UniProtKB/TrEMBL annotation:
The chain crosses the membrane at residues 20-40, 185-203, 223-250, 284-304, 309-325, 368-386. It comes from Psychrobacillus mangrovi. Keywords: Membrane, Transmembrane, Transmembrane helix. This is ABC transporter permease.
Length: 396
């Protein structure tokens, strides 16, 4: 068994296709670190000029109409909310000027909470204009989420008192960049890498049938070894990507694992903070289960269909399937949580963003692990059963 494991291991990591996958991942990591990360512009950034413009506009308005009587109700409403708003903006401006970052963090947390409470149900006020760009029909909802997220994040900074920096405030540090990517397309990149690394893990044996007959091992044991090698190889796809994160860390700081990560609760309609370390560990576990899922698909299809194209096609369809039925708010009237394909964007499940946009209570980390894990286990059982049949022998 050990001899077969070593042989499969050597075959996997000397496969030219697999080497090419790792090289492509390294290239993507370097490109992201040197080209994409430096030009990242968050919607909620430290913009003193913008703060001063808001403060000056509101201050001039208060001075011009503050002493008048019998004003329009809209003017009276503005006079009621602007003083507190300006007080918070003034505190933020002065804190940045004095580099009193703790004061800035505290004032910013209050500013986002106060702003969101005023804007969310207002028909006249709006969130940051960048939420409404590109014809976004859900700009108001996205602004509500963004302000709640940022308010919760700065509250966590105030409570945890990490090493403050402008890069930290704008989520540019290496760990925060990793968090942002986990909430976007990094899991999909890892899944596609897993598929390409594993797609021929069984069918390549057709090239060496006589050599493989020298290993007197049952087919199901061969498949277990192949699955283990594919899993190890897929997990190692993190290594070339880590090069990019090291470069970002050297440029903008690495952050630390105690940083707050806001998690949205659809039940309570509010955010709570999870530590960065816990967030990354949960993502790692969920991604690992997904990798096992794709390996199980490939092993089963390789036994039944014996065509690499089918392995590739079916696996990629699983990744793309959510885009075929995705519709904002659909969780309120469909059972979207029953489909394993709804959990592909792992970070968005853990952060609660999927619950928010789909308006669902059930798209949770726990449900995702149960559903994807159960599907993986079922496919493994089917693979074991099929491997016992002489019709589906690995080597004729």
């Amino acid at each position: 068994m050990w001899a077969y494991f070593k042989w499969e291991f050597r075959q996997f990591f000397t496969n030219k296709k697999n080497i090419a996958v790792y090289v492509i991942l390294l290239f993507l990591a370097l490109y992201f670190a040197f080209k994409v990360a430096p030009i990242y512009e968050p919607i909620e950034k430290v913009d003193v000029a913008e703060m001063e413009a808001r403060f000056t506009t509101r201050d001039d308005f208060i001075k011009s109409v503050g002493n008048k009587t019998n004003v329009h109700p809209a003017v009276g409403y503005a006079l009621a909310i602007f003083p507190q708003w300006n007080e918070l903006d003034k505190a933020r401006i002065e804190a940045i000027a004095n580099k009193d970052y703790l004061k800035y963090v505290e004032a910013t947390a209050e500013w986002y909470k106060y702003s969101d409470a005023i804007i969310v149900n207002s028909g006249q006020l709006f969130y940051n204009p960048l939420y409404y760009t590109y014809g976004n029909d859900f700009g108001h909802a996205d602004g509500h989420y963004g302000y709640g997220y940022t308010g919760s994040r700065f509250t966590g900074y105030a409570e945890g008192n990490p090493e403050f920096s402008l890069e930290l405030f704008e989520e540019r540090t290496a760990l925060q960049t990793l968090q942002r990517l986990l909430n976007n397309y990094l899991p999909i990149v890892l899944f596609i890498s897993c598929i390409f690394l594993s797609v021929d893990i069984v069918l390549k044996d057709r090239r060496n049938p006589s050599l493989l007959k020298g290993f007197p091992i049952a087919d199901w044991k061969r498949l277990c070894m192949k699955g283990l090698i594919a899993f190890i190889g897929s997990v190692m796809s993190f290594i070339p990507l880590c090069v990019g994160f090291v470069i970002i860390g050297l440029q903008n700081g690495f952050g630390d694992f105690s940083l707050p990560v806001p998690i949205y609760s659809y039940i309570e309609k509010t955010f709570t903070n999870m530590s960065m370390g816990t967030f990354i560990l949960k993502n790692a576990l969920f991604i690992s289960v997904w990798i096992l899922f794709f390996i199980a698909i490939i092993l089963l299809l390789s036994l039944i269909v014996k065509a690499e194209f089918i392995n590739l096609f079916v696996s990629l369809i699983v990744i793309a399937a959510e885009w075929l039925y995705s519709n904002r708010g659909m969780g309120a009237f469909t059972d979207i949580q029953r489909y394993p394909t709804s959990y592909v964007q792992v970070g968005q499940i853990i952060s609660g963003y999927k619950n928010y946009i789909y308006e669902s209570l059930h798209l949770t980390y726990q449900n995702g692990l149960i559903i994807v894990g159960s599907c993986t286990l079922i496919m493994m059982v089917f693979t074991l059963i099929v491997s016992q049949s002489k019709r589906f022998k690995l080597i004729a």
